[in-house]
Amino acid sequence: MICGIDEAGRGCLCGSLFVAGVVCDDKNAFFLKNHGVRDSKTTTKSQRQKLFTLITNTKGIFFHVVEKTSNQIDQKSLSTCLKESIQEICIKLTPYSKNFLLDGNTTFHSIPPKNSSLQCIIKGDNKITQIAAASILAKYFKDLEMQKLHVLYPDYHFIQHSGYGTKKHLEKIKTLGYTPYHRKSFIIKKSLLDFNF
Fold first, then answer.
1. 3 partner at 20 to 30 Å CA-CA among 28, 71, 102, 114?
2. 3-state class of 128 per DSSP?
């Protein structure tokens, strides 16, 4: 049983960070891959909705998702929130797996539970189905959050850019300012906005 871990929203200017862990054996990993589970960046929103249902309703698959809000990120730092999220996932899912594989090149100094291992896999969401499944879950929850924020703040077009620092998003921040959900600790270069917060 392998646990794959991935996140969504790490580089966003607005909204929460979501970190997910998915545990399954080789048989279920093969099943998920055959049904289209892959790196969430290569899927559409509607595909992620279907894959979310598949992952969360398949017998023998275990998962846990952690949300860290923009306020928590501002108060603690992004790295601390990532470390806490990874450690929480390891603790919650250690009854099912002792082998934790994290997408990327750093564990953020996370310490796995006793008798467990935590390993980084660069581009792991393309190599390990469990990590790809985790990326789907994390991005699914990020999609839901952006839909809710779009209803609250339609002028920001959150559905289009998911809170990332696109040109359109930066222009909206320049003209409308921050919402309560923006990460105030994220420094936006003045040259990008020509605007002083």
1. 71
2. coil
One-letter amino acid at 192 equals L
Express each pLDDT in 80-120 by its tens digit.
999 999 999 999 999 999 999 999 999 899 988 899 999 99
Q: Please answer whether residues 78 and 50 qualify as being in contact, where contact means their C-beta atoms are separated by less than 8 angstroms.
A: no
The pTM of this model reads: 0.91
Give the chain's end-to-end CA distance (angstroms, integer): 48
Q: Give the residue among 58, 68, 47 at the shortest CA–CA distance from 130.
A: 58
CA distance 85 to 65: 8
**How many other C-beta atoms can be found within 10 angstroms of the C-beta atom of residue 83?**
18
Distance CA 136, CA 127 (A): 14
